[in-house]
Amino acid sequence: MNFFVKNGEIYKLDGATGKPKIIYLFGVNWFGFETRDYVVHGLWARNWVDMLQQIKSLGFNAIRLPFCTYSVQEGTMPNSNAINYNINPDLQGLTSIEIMEKIVAKANELGIYILLDYHRLGCDQIEPLWYSDQVSEQQFIDTWVSVAKRFAKYPNVIGADIRNEPWGATWGTDDPATDWRLAVEKVAPKILEVAPHWLIFVEGTYKTRPDIDERSWYPYYSYYVFWGENLRAVRYYPVRLPYEKIVYSPHTYGPDVFRQPYFDDPIFPENMRSIWMERFGYVKTELGYALVVGEFGGRYGHGGDPRDIIWQIKFVDWLIENRICNFFYWSWNANSGDTGGILKDDWTNIWEDKYQNLKRLMDYCSSIN
């Protein structure tokens, strides 16, 4: 099965029939492999298959699976306290990557796409670049090649999210130490050699170049962006990979995550449309690239800033207005500190209001495909 981009949409080429079909990714982020637990969270409370079946039953058809370097190394064992083996007996004795492979294989049976996300280098924080004192650039590349070799055989693995939120990177500066575009162009071909049917997901940065960021429509807000959100430089410095393989994947959040000054604008939330479009929306609507929102979310009034509900509703409205149908909501997990999850704290029941807002988008997009 092959995945490719055409006219700004993601297509799946069925190997059996040879016919292409547009697919929309209605996804959630299920995190944990990127932490020192080395395994998705919630397995202390739930059976892993039950969790996947619930995701499917709600209409989600994709999972972004964050990992760190050590969780995908051979021999790494998950934190035993992170798994209740009484309700997950088939995970007993398995390494972290063996558990990840079971999740991917079961997701394939259920018709759930998987996006693999190199979220952290070490497993403690989001480092600024794609290399660090702990993990060299070559180790980063080697890790991706190893992961691609292992998971390329699963037809539901749609691609590689090269690096989560490279907030210390630049874009278009031609500095090999910081230019995120150059890094993607160096790493992605190595992945595509092993998994040529995959897509390459490219997140935004925090800053790009001063001459680009400072010509923002909102000069005062030029640098008030979220990590992974800034795709302004794509207009001038697109990633030089085959068009059909590139997916741009911004992250954006509301006031629950950080109180940006534009949330205090008297016309909020009407000001958000222009901000989203200027930072990343134009990549699809003007340039015709595929766009998948890799992260957005918040507590939706369940604690936190009450304006988060307004922000999330307006964001879904904007996605519908612009026929941007692909997303991965942050998060499935109940234990995301600043956003909460689709799941409530019992790890079983869902926040129905959060879900219904997302369902508006899923229902709309399903109706047009």
UniProtKB/TrEMBL annotation:
Stored InterPro entries: GH (IPR017853), Glyco_hydro_5 (IPR001547)
Gene Ontology MF term list: cellulase activity
Matching CDD domains: AmyAc_family (cd00551)
Pfam families: Cellulase
SUPFAM superfamilies associated with the record: (Trans)glycosidases
Record-listed E.C. numbers: 3.2.1.4
GO biological process: cellulose catabolic process
Keywords: Carbohydrate metabolism, Cellulose degradation, Glycosidase, Hydrolase, Polysaccharide degradation
Superkingdom field: Archaea
Domain Glycoside hydrolase family: 27-336
PANTHER family in alphabetical order: ENDOGLUCANASE (PTHR35923:SF2), MAJOR EXTRACELLULAR ENDOGLUCANASE (PTHR35923)
Name of this chain's protein: Cellulase
Organism: Ignisphaera aggregans (strain DSM 17230 / JCM 13409 / AQ1.S1)
